[in-house]
Amino acid sequence: MKAIRRFTVRPVLPEPLRPLSDLARNLRWSWHAGTRDLFRSVDPERWAAAGGDPMRLLGSVPTERLSELAGDRDFLDRLAAVADDLDTYMTGDRWYQRQSGRLPAAVAYFSPEFGITAALPQYSGGLGILAGDHLKAASDLGAPLIGVGLLYRHGYFRQSLSRDGWQQEHYPVLDPHELPLDQLKESDGTPAQITLALPGDRSLRARIWIAQVGRIPLLLLDSDIEENDLIERGVTDRLYGGGSEHRLLQEMLLGIGGVRAVRTYCGLTGHAAPEVFHTNEGHAGFLGLERMAELRAEGLDFDAALEAVRAGTVFTTHTPVPAGIDRFDRELVARHFGPHAELPDLEVDRILRLGMETYPGGEPNLFNMAVMGLRLAQRANGVSLLHGQVSREMFAGLWPGFDPEEVPITSVTNGVHAPTWVAPEVYRLGARQIGTQRAEEALSIGDSDRWDSVADIPDQDIWELRRSLRELLVLEVRERLRASWRQRGAGTAELGWIDGVLDPDVLTIGFARRVPSYKRLTLMLRDRDRLMDLLLHPDRPVQIVVAGKAHPADDGGKRLIQELVRFTDDPRVRHRIVFLPDYGMAMAQKLYPGCDIWLNNPLRPLEACGTSGMKAALNGGLNLSVLDGWWDEWFQPDFGWSIPTADGAGTDPDRRDDIEAAALYDLLEQRVTRTFYERGRSGLPDRWIEMVRRTLSLLGPKVLAGRMVREYVERLYTPAAHAHRAMNADAARELAEWKAVVRGAWHGVTVDHVETSVASATAELGSTLALRVRVGLGSLRPEDVEVQAVAGRVDEEDRITDAATVPLKPVGSPGAGGEWVYEGPLSLDRTGPFGYTVRVLPSHRLLASGAELGLVAVPPEDVAEAAGLLMR
Fold it and tell me: What SUPFAM superfamilies is this protein classified in (predicted)?
């Protein structure tokens, strides 16, 4: 029979055990081994059955066991110590509090998904895991972030396989009362709500749940409440589900509703109001519109409000392809804003202009969330050096007249939260070497001194650690594989072969990630005979563990999974290669440490960062990867191997896959397996162990989320906070009015004449040119512009590369026609083909970049030719 109503019955803990509730509701337990050990000791069997979730554990422990623990002095002492440790963690000064300068009072961090722990399944893949690691690292550093997201009642989806290997999706209902969440309540005890206006006099209401992530509150908005109609209740049903209007409503709730939730939370709790708003991908871009509407209510016009919002906004793009960006039909967006919908004080046509693709090659009728995000943020970044370069090229149309390398999008390479992803066995080895406190600091903050101590760990200890991790993975794989085959309809009598799957002494390769086509799940199958030879080699075999989910609407990705599963089902190789369904955080935490090699073979340069290999590296795994994302930036032969690519524009896709698959097989056959199985005098694989050691000591400090968050604080959050403080109402009006004047007058800005002190086509290294430039400023003043010389090496087509800019100074008074003369020296500091040009840019003290307006004036062709721009 089915229940007509459902309740969540919470356990009543004896008074001495009350701190267990606080420990369970702060998600720091998900990365703090001492807290997890405490909960495990409550009831080891129930802890395992609860999947390591303290909330589920406490809901299942019998009253008799709780009473027993309440009288257990040893347990109560441990409980007090862990509770005191959490209190110290929450209240003591950390890295952020020890910095000098005026850092942001608070930062609001918006993301459509957050991967904190498997006990709170609100993530689909890398973006969510990155967001979760960002919050956890910020907590460890003491950075005052407020996370903002949505609470999806069905999460993403659970994955299983049919008998023929086709992906099946399941959407279990999540009850927030059974999750580690608390409702935000008004002072009278009623649930706090935010409301959005919808077309047709409808409303979208949402309650606010709080997940406490260490020191960081994560606000999650939930529309599945009785006050909403059926359609509105379903807005927060599934992550990345539904059609265009459904997605638009999700993103309006995340952005607009998220700002309102932050304001409500700060008002009720006294938390400092954010000075910086960080938009993690374009999904939350509407947050800027809500903040503009707040400023309109305070008397600023649209343009001034835009400048004030931009000053304190950081936008991070995670996609290297336009197809990965949410785009909505212009009319759909227009219908949801204006007098009869949301944000009635903002002109709809001005809102639309923020997201329209008004550049060559853009779609004029589509509203682009990333474009809006960039226009609403004064600071933007990609998530690796290579991805920053790709992003500058992809969005260059927003800054016409500038070379891609000058587009104001920087990069902060992602990192991973080591306390979450480092296996307990690895941590214990490090703590034994340098002490518990230093080991914790090495993982959360990181510096080379702490990580250098890896050099002193004996080879035997490293090799025994790696084998024990491999053995744990073998047991985990067999258990999961048996469960998967039962879901596929197999009987127990058919599954005896699973006891022989994988071998703890065989080189183990891991490949686990989402399954879009560009990640090339099946590249390893390109030559099945060679793959079989590798798997079944009599002396140097390999074994491969594969996992990953395709988007429910991506039949192409599902076909790739099915193709791989059918290969893994082959009785000849099924003991050497497995596919594990339902990839998630719980599986990943076992998979990364147990793999000797982490394989990554995307189509370059379509991997924005790709952090899974970082997690493997922190556990002593070596990377075998295409030079893409973070690997392109930090690869050294010490850390692993790079797969050669054939990414020329003219390469046929099938031919490219053949070439790169052959390169992968060659590396495995000739270098990887030989290094793993080759033994030195000690009977150990000396070269392999040395690579593991160098991976940990040299790569370890780089891949930390602590390093990443420190970079965000220093390079983006703090400058944004300073800009926000400087952009008061008067400054915002001044900047908006100045921009309007400059845009209106820019047609009158010209470079009329360029001359230099060197007449010949050659010059000596170290000599200096004297430049003299005559420019017309029209109605603008010299203080409105900066005249620059741009110089550097030139390529075969006379394009300046590796350019340096030198500001020129006005001399004298304007001429009869209003033209000005600018002069300055240009040092010749490099040999070979050298060139220069001059340009005029807008200049104002409140601009973050000279490219911000996308305006530039350069010499016309006849002036350029007369100036003798090139010297060879």
Answer: UDP-Glycosyltransferase/glycogen phosphorylase
Q: Is the pLDDT of residue 804 over 50?
A: yes
Of 594, 603, 599, 590, the C-alpha closest to 564 is 599
Q: What is the 3-state secondary structure (H, E, C) of 410-444?
A: EECCCCECHHHHCCHHHHHHHHHHHCHHHHHHHHH
d(CA 841, CA 573): 64
How is residue 480 written in tokens? 């999961």
Q: What is the Cα 295 distance to its own chain's centre?
A: 30
The amino acid at 719: P
Q: Percent of the chain scored above 90 by pLDDT?
A: 82
605: preceding bond cis by omega (within 30 degrees):
yes
CA distance 511 to 500: 21
CA angle 275, 280, 286 (to 5 degrees): 75
Q: Residue holding tokens 């024990």?
A: 468
114, β-bridge pairs: 122
Q: Which amino acid is at 505?
A: D
**Beta-ladder partners of 210:** 182, 219
* Element of type H or E holding 542: strand 542-547
Tell whether pTM > 0.90.
yes
**Contact between 520 and 647 (Cβ < 8 Å):** no
Question: What gap in Å lies between CA 367 and CA 285, rounded to an integer?
Answer: 12
* Cβ proximity of 720 and 746 under 8 Å: no
pLDDT grade for 759, boundaries at 50, 70 and 90:
low
DSSP state of 695: I
H helix runs in 329-487, sequence order:
330-335, 348-355, 369-375, 385-394, 418-421, 424-434, 436-444, 448-452, 459-487
